[in-house]
Design brief:
Belongs to the glycosyltransferase 2 family. With about 450 residues, the protein is of the alpha/beta class. Helices cover about 55% and strands about 10% of the residues. About 45% of the residues are buried.
Length: about 450
């Protein structure tokens, strides 16, 4: 990972001189395009619906096709339209001097904590950086190594212990010790780009007063480990990044992820700290949105994390994310969100279980049937979603390429991983998410690792 340490002038603000379009206007333009696309899909699919009605009731046929084609097509069209009109707000400063605190909750990270602290020491942020490492019941030398390396690197580091298992306990243990206006959470296996803290603080200081958190951009560090990590590289680079940009445009990023995000310290304290939830960062973010505050996303604040390299760990992580979404829906309902954009974006998540169920139990069997010439469920109209997905990825690739060029990073070649991501990734994700929904409904034991 290489970095250009020079301070670029107003990156990602290429449309500063163009005519201003309000966020609300962008929202309704994107809605018009998305609804138009969905209407066209419905009209073109009527023969398909009629054929399917010969085998199942009419309302079931419509529900299945809606979950396979109409709603995904609407979502993709809305995202594409939004990304095309998206322009990052200008920075008021690119050299902030605000003091911050970085909190790292870790358990048995003796081998990896050194790299994480080393990258913190390389930050070009001009303000003071305090570091709090919370050892959450480690049985190795995590605490000792953190103390030793902190001294060697010249970091102002405090190491504390939290014996109660659970990331929320570890983060809440550090919260009373934070003396700065802003706090950053960072996973112990996540490495910051040298300009990451500067950009995320700059975005917060450039944001309106009611913005209480900024999510950083998390990318894959270990994409060369195996094919599973190569596929996830594109998920983080394009899939998750596109969702974050969409949500950031409408000032309602739904997850200020614990892996790397900046929060206003008092805002966290005012809502009682991090909740006891398997998706503590999701619930925390929704609670912030529910107090009439907004959450931004900064694509230039980049960090790199290790992703699961075995299906067992991948399954645990993604099913945990699905459970976290259900937990958030229980805590605050979308219609209870005070901000219109937040209501719409969180309302998306009400549809996700339905879409994942349809995909898992209808589309996948339908795909098998299509191979034998039976186009009952998977038919020509389903292909309309594919060009939208490719267009979405092309637009995001252009944005991400600009981000990487600004940060003096290079995009790795990973063509087969991209092909697998576009064609096969959802076949893995939807069944895993369905398992997560069942785990939450059945209140099964939580597994973090």
């Amino acid at each position: 990972m290489q970095s250009n340490m020079n301070c670029p002038k107003q990156p990602l603000n290429r449309a500063a001189s163009s005519r201003y379009i309000s966020v609300k206007m962008k929202f309704w333009i994107s809605q018009l395009i998305a609804v138009s696309w969905m209407t066209l899909s419905i009209v073109l699919s009527l023969p398909w619906v009629h054929d399917l009605e010969q085998y199942i009731p009419s309302f079931v046929a419509f529900a299945v096709i809606a979950g396979i084609s109409y709603i995904p097509g609407y979502m993709n069209a809305f995202m594409i339209a939004s990304l095309l009109v998206d322009r990052q707000p200008t920075f008021k400063t690119l050299a902030p001097k605000e003091d911050i605190t970085i909190v790292i909750a870790c358990r048995n990270e003796e081998k990896g904590i050194g790299e994480t602290l080393n990258q913190i020491a390389k930050q070009d942020h001009e303000g003071k950086i305090d570091v709090i490492v919370v050892d959450n019941g480690s049985i190795d030398r995590t605490a000792e190594v953190a103390k030793e390396l902190g001294k060697q690197l010249g970091l102002d580091i405090l190491v504390v212990e939290e014996t109660r298992a659970g990331k929320h306990h570890a983060l809440n243990r550090a919260l009373p010790l934070v003396m700065t206006r802003y706090v950053v959470t960072l996973d112990a296996d996540t490495l910051l780009h040298p300009q990451a803290i500067r950009y995320i603080v700059a975005r917060m200081l450039s944001a309106p007063a009611d913005v209480s958190a900024v999510a950083g951009a998390v990318l894959v560090r270990n994409s060369r480990d195996n094919f599973l990590s190569k596929i996830q590289e594109w998920d983080y680079f394009l899939g998750i990044a596109s969702i974050k940009r969409l949500q950031g445009l409408y000032q309602g990023t739904l997850v200020a992820q614990g892996a790397f995000s900046l929060y206003e310290t008092d805002a966290i304290r005012n809502i009682g700290g991090w909740p006891d939830a398997i998706g503590e960062d999701i619930v925390l973010t929704w609670r912030l949105l529910g107090t009439n505050q907004r959450v931004f996303f900064e694509p230039l604040a980049v960090a790199f994390t290790d992703v699961p390299t075995t299906f067992k760990h991948f399954f645990r992580q993604r099913s945990r994310w699905a459970r976290g979404m259900i937990e958030a829906l229980k805590v605050i309902k979308p219609w209870q969100q005070p901000i219109m954009f937040a209501r719409f974006l969180t309302g998306y998540n009400l549809l996700m279980p339905y879409l994942d169920f349809v995909y898992t139990f209808c589309w996948l069997p339908g795909l098998v049937a299509a191979f034998f010439g039976h186009y009952w469920i998977v038919g020509p109209i389903t292909l309309l979603v594919l060009p939208l997905a490719l267009l979405q990825n092309m637009i995001l690739y252009r944005y991400q390429k600009y981000v990487f060029r600004t940060l003096d990073l290079k995009i790795r070649r990973n063509r087969w991983g991209f092909v697998a991501f576009v064609l096969c990734y959802q076949m893995i994700m939807s069944p895993v998410s369905v398992c997560g929904y069942f785990q939450e409904c059945l209140k099964l034991g939580r597994v973090w690792k």
